Amino acid sequence: MTATPNGYVTVIWQTRAKPGKEAELKAFITAAVTPSRNDPGNIDYEAHEVEGRPGAFVIYERWENRECLDAHLSAPRMNELVPQMLKLIDGSIEDGISLLRPFRPVR
């Protein structure tokens, strides 16, 4: 992942709960939102549940730059959270990550 020309980084993370773990994953994500929003360099951190698809979640994140995102991902709490999350999600964390690169129409 690289930063956009103006420096900020936008990440979309999509995941699905393992069968029977939907409520537990939603609670887990809910508890992780505030600490992530408080990480240095966070611009926006929003968790969403996909309407009509129980157990499907999307997190939208924006960071001031790649260094802030990297610091978030390597925060000490992640060493504890990642193994817990892997027990709740179907697939890997990496498979659900997309970096968005903004563009605008030419005027």
TrEMBL record:
The keyword Membrane does not apply. Coiled coil: none annotated. This is Quinol monooxygenase YgiN. Pfam families: ABM. PROSITE patterns: ABM. Keywords: Monooxygenase, Oxidoreductase. The lineage of its organism: Bacteria, Bacillati, Actinomycetota, Actinomycetes, Micromonosporales. PANTHER family: ABM DOMAIN-CONTAINING PROTEIN (PTHR33336:SF15), QUINOL MONOOXYGENASE YGIN-RELATED (PTHR33336). It comes from the Bacteria.
